[in-house]
Amino acid sequence: MSQKPPTYLGGEYGMRSWLLTLDHKRIALLYLLGVTFFFLLGGVFAVLVRLELLTPAGDLFQSETYNKLFTLHGVFMVFFFLIPGIPAVLGNFLLPLMIGAKDLAFPRINLLSWYIYMVGGLFTLYAMLAGGVDTGWTFYTPYSSTYANSHVIAAALGIFVSGFSSILTGVNFIATIHKLRAPGLSWFRLPLFVWAHYATSLIMVLGTPVVAITILLVAVERLFHVGLFDPALGGDPILFQHLFWFYSHPAVYIMILPAMGVISEVIACFSQKRIFGYKFVAFSSLAIAVLGFLVWGHHMFVSGQSLYAGVVFSLLSFLVAIPSAVKVFNWIATLYRGSISFEAPMLYALGFIGLFTIGGLTGLFLATLAVDVHVHDTYFVVAHFHFVMVGGTVMAYLAGLHFWWPKMLGRLYPETLARITAVIIFVGFNLTFLPQFVLGYLGMPRRYHVYPLEFQVLNVLSTAGASILGLGFAMTAVYLPWSLRYGKKATPNPFDARGLEWTTTSPPMAHNFEEVPVVSTEAYERDEPEVVHV
Amino acid sequence: MFQDFSLWPASASSNSGSIDALYLFLIGISVFFSLLIVTALLFFSVRYRRRPGHRAQQIEGSLPLELLWTGVPLVLCLFIFAWGTRLFYRTQTMPEEGMRFHVTGKQWMWKIRHPSGQSEINTLHLPVGQKILLTMISEDVIHSFFVPAFRVKKDVLPGMYSSLWFTPTQVGTYHLFCAEYCGTKHSEMGGQVIVMDPAEYQAWLDGRPSERNPLANGALLFQNLRCDTCHTPGPSARGPELAGRFGRDVTLSDGQTVRFDERYVRESVLEPAKRLSAGFQPLMPSYQGQIGESDILDLSAYLKSLRSSRSPQ
Amino acid sequence: MSSRTEGALAHHFETLEQQAEAGALGMWAFLIQEVMFFGGLFTVYLVYRTLHPAAFVQGSAHLPIDLGTLNTGVLIGSSLTMALAVRGAQLGRGKNAALFILATMLLACVFLGIKGLEYSHKWHDQLVPGLNWNPGPDADAHLNLFYALYFVMTGCHALHMLIGLALMVVVARKAWRGGYSPGNFLGVECLGLYWHFVDLVWIFLFPLLYLLGRHGPHS
């Protein structure tokens, strides 16, 4: 028996070999560290925000501090956790493995994009330590460009810089998926995770530069006061909103599409089935990416944009709901006649389906012009996007992290504990955010430091839920690292999954495969020969 | 803590009922589909759980099913879209007549001026059953005027008027919020809307210290800013005669026309040369920096009143 | 396969052809994001031009059309030398390619010099919004928007040229030392694509800023 080549974790040790690595798997782990750090930081801010909202009066923090807390929560979570989260960690690690390649197309650019991400993060950390920023993560002008008295430029610079990390990641993924697929791996044999990342990469490349230039203009306006967004000097503050949402709405799909990719993989594995309607699920990702660019105006129904613009954006927003619905129905149909088991990743995936369904359906409320007028900028919106971002993206991130943890690090996590944690997170999440829908329709505006007494009951419920949710995340943060040392060694394919990444060792060797794999089966194809056509 | 606790907001304007109806319909749809999906998910999870001797059965997909679950949501979405858009159109189209209030937002207060000239801050007294029309502008950043009980909200922008209307239908006291984040005391920028019987409202107005009403203030500004030296009747006038002009279309020097309304008045005061009336030279100076937003609104109110008094019947 | 091409093939590609295709595709994807970046700026320009046409006509009329035209010529010339450099690399003439890149760098510096001259005139005329702004009594109330966009757009363009110059130093050195071959000149090719893009941006900027409205009814 020949000597196995060392895994990517072995071979070279030491800081240098990590900080200068060109191996996509090591870079993915570097991202994992960064992303986890910013997630915990954003989580701390969320806890402080929820604590303040226990009581109607502003008794824990000054208003100024509170405003900085929710701003930093949003900035860190959106730009430094949700956007890079799944693509830069799981995507980075898995794309080459899934398509039978030795690495991404541009390993140096991959490392560069991690450094750019960290530099962007450092700028934003500087903004935080220097005194914070209080504009909300949306940076609306003219407040951000003229009136805010906080470290807007440093934070804006951080977001600007980290944007290029996402652009380079997108470019890298596109070239990789086009040119580095293993022999026999045609487009329609690709795992749906790869399709989702392809669609995501398109948005990263097409959308991110627009927010980069927009943020740059805000910085120019703030530094030199040239009037670009200041009506007193002839500028138009609404133009900023158009440019900002032209990226930031598609950015929502940067966050959710890779999550959907993870869910497809997990469901296929734990129901031992091929994904029902593979092509529809694949194309729905592209449909979301394309339609996602045409709906930005739905953030501005009450901003005074013309009635007709509102009508068009409303219609397009309804259309973007359809491909999401198609995915959900196909996942459910995949369960039909499956052989379903309930390991932790599957629990997260099933939770995702339920929560994302609610997140998506409440999106319809916001697309409906007359209803949006009332719920716009209230806690209804807060609840809606947390259902999509936390109930969707974070659930899928945890599903994926657990699913590929044995592959990535070669250890099994404690299964029972992980299942209990998944249930705790699900319960905590619902208790946190369901009451916020009610709060929103009652009329509690978002970003409120103090609020009328009658909203307290629901806020207390929400904070109670947040503490359960926090407990769940804390447990994950303990047992996953614990497993690195004490977990059982993982076999190459502990979940009996399909896909090229499961054909190599756990953890994979430095160049992924001993020899280039040749693909002759469809995605998720199992030994069972009979294929039933319904 | 449980004081005034409720799960449903007060419904106190002519539009709140119809918006609630659509909202309830949406909740119905959402509950139906959530239950459908969750039930299917749970049922399949139990029915097809992994057990010895049971193998998954591979299914390629099904075009009819795909068409079904693309088509049904699409039709439903289009239905909701049509309903929401019709309602939006009805509630957003400004009526011609009604009581016109002026609202000025600034960090962090609402200044409100009643049609008869009384003003108040962070509180809005209204007579029940009357059409209320708000013309709103901000002096600094973007704010948003939000009265949950009326189901109305509109951003209040710097440099541009926005407008809003509603008819209060229930006597009572309701929250007034700023819904667009505007800085440190954003959450304290608000107060109460107090809807009263018309007689009580009148009594409340009468009890306010007498202030210069918008018409009088506008007339005074018209003199003090020397508007009247150029905008006079007669052939030698250097500016157009303004009486009877409000609400009509004006021909500009480049041949286009524009409605002479509050927006145009404001622009002409601040940037007179931008859209010049046909037949006149760009002689008028800009009053940028010399006149506040509420004074500009008063000038508009005065110019509007000139329609009935001086124009030929 | 010669030892040289073996060294040029990164471990994760099977063939040089695959490597070149991936590199070119990546470069095109990158250029698409550049299009979106400048597209955002052009959108802002179009919106403000539509809102305040008089200010933009007045601003255009003040820009030195002779210097702008000269710079357009210089930049088109630099695109030509860059194309020749790519051809040189394609034919395996490394030194020839390096010299043409050097010529491109010279032309780029001429362009930036002229641009600097224009900027200094603007400073002298107090037409730099936010820093040195005093456009005189006859100026349109929104002239600041035109000049703000003028500086941001030409500034972003100049920044791209500076990045291009830095890349040219690296590529020219490698070309001079024979680092490229007819089957492997991806670096020069990508540099060429980038430089033509930078040129193309100027081909849009020049008419938008210097020409449009100059002979319109308002001037």
Question: What does this 3D model show about the protein?
Answer:
The complex is a heterotrimer of chains A (534), B (313) and C (219). Chain A is mainly alpha-helical and 534 residues long. Chain A has one domain (15-503): Up-down Bundle (Cytochrome C Oxidase, Chain A), CATH 1.20.210. Chain A has 15 helices and one strand. The radius of gyration of chain A is 23 Å and the shape is globular. By secondary structure, chain B is of the alpha+beta class. In chain B, the strands form three sheets. Chain B has a five-stranded mixed sheet with strand order 4-3-2-6-9, covered by helices on one side. A five-stranded mixed sheet of chain B has the order 5-11-10-7-8. A two-stranded antiparallel ribbon of chain B has the order 12-13. The termini of chain B are far apart. By secondary structure, chain C is mainly alpha-helical. Chain C has one domain (19-211): Cytochrome c oxidase, subunit III, four-helix bundle (Four Helix Bundle (Hemerythrin (Met), subunit A), Up-down Bundle). Chain C has a two-stranded antiparallel ribbon. The model of chain C is unreliable at 1-5 (pLDDT under 50). Chains in contact: A-B, A-C, B-C. The interface between A and B is large, with 99 and 87 residues. Strand 1 of chain A pairs parallel with strand 1 of chain B.
Rounded to the nearest angstrom, the distance between the terminal CA atoms of chain B is 62 Å
Q: State the fourth-level CATH superfamily of chain C.
A: Cytochrome c oxidase, subunit III, four-helix bundle
Number of H/I helices of chain C:
7
Helix content of chain C: over 70%
Largest sheet of chain B: 5 strands, mixed
**Secondary structural class of chain C:** mainly alpha
CATH class of the largest domain in chain B: Mainly Beta
Distance between the termini of chain C: 66 Å
Fold-level CATH name of the largest domain in chain B: Immunoglobulin-like
Instruction: Please report the number of helical segments of chain B.
Output: 7
Q: Biggest sheet of chain C, in brief?
A: 2 strands, antiparallel
Overall 3D shape of chain B: elongated
Q: Using DSSP, what is the number of strands of chain B?
A: 13
Largest interface: A-B, 99 and 87 residues
